[in-house]
Amino acid sequence: MNAENLKETVVRAAELLDVFKRQSEEAGRANRDNAARLQHVVEEAPQQIRKAADEALGRVSGEVAQAVRGGIGSSLGELQRAAGDSRQQVEAAGQGFAQLARHAATLEKRLLMVATAVGLILLLALAVGAGGLWYMQREASRNQVEIELLRAYNRADVVLCHDGRLCARLEPDAAGGDGEYRLVAPRR
């Protein structure tokens, strides 16, 4: 995987985490709103049912009315318990979404740190490569003169003769060029 693919993957992962985080926050808000509405309905329902029952029972005899009220009261208690359980489940789901959002944020931070570290490593590798290239160019230009001198030696008829000194055969047209090897004068 090259650096561009890694960068693209990290960017896509960050985008997905951002979308997930927003959706989790929206779901959490919606759950809290629904829990509040449910709580309101739960609080209002018993009063409305009692009111409707009182109006209806106002027309019924006392004993019958008392028996019906008892039945409605137990039903209302069950409704309140069920509503309370539902509210707790909605709150638990909201807490789960909040925990997922926190986990996504932590993961996003870790991905950002990894991407930054990879970027720094690539930058360091680029700097080392550029330094090596600069050094090699400097060495090549420094050795260019020596290379030209060695090429000239290779083209010339030069041999080692007395005591490790060079001897060269001169052109027959040159002064003193009789085809024999002559001692080359040392540099001064």
How would you sum up this structure, described in words?
It is a single chain. The chain is mainly alpha-helical and 188 residues long. The protein is 79% helix and 5% strand. The protein contains 2 helices and 3 strands; from the N terminus they run H-H-E-E-E. A 3-stranded antiparallel beta sheet has the order 1-2-3, with no helix packed on it. Helix 1 packs antiparallel against helix 2 (62-155). The longest helix has 94 residues, at 62-155. The radius of gyration is 47 Å and the shape is rod-shaped. The two termini are 60 Å apart. Keywords: Membrane, Transmembrane, Transmembrane helix. The chain crosses the membrane at residues 111-136. It comes from Marilutibacter chinensis.
Strand and helix map with partners:
Layout: H1 3-57, H2 62-155, E1 158-160, E2 166-169, E3 181-183
Helix pairs in contact: 1-2
What do the pLDDT scores average to? Answer: 82
Residue windows where pLDDT falls under 50 for at least 5 positions: none
Order of helical and strand elements: HHEEE
Q: How is the largest sheet built, in terms of strand order? A: 1-2-3
Distance between the termini: 60 Å
The radius of gyration computed from the alpha-carbon positions, rounded to a whole number of angstroms, is 47 Å
Question: What level of helicity do the residues show?
Answer: over 70%
C-alpha geometry = rod-shaped
Count the E strands: 3
Structural class: mainly alpha
How can the largest sheet be summarized? 3 strands, antiparallel
Strand content: 5-15%
Tally of alpha and pi helices: 2
Keywords: Membrane, Transmembrane, Transmembrane helix
Protein name: Relaxation protein
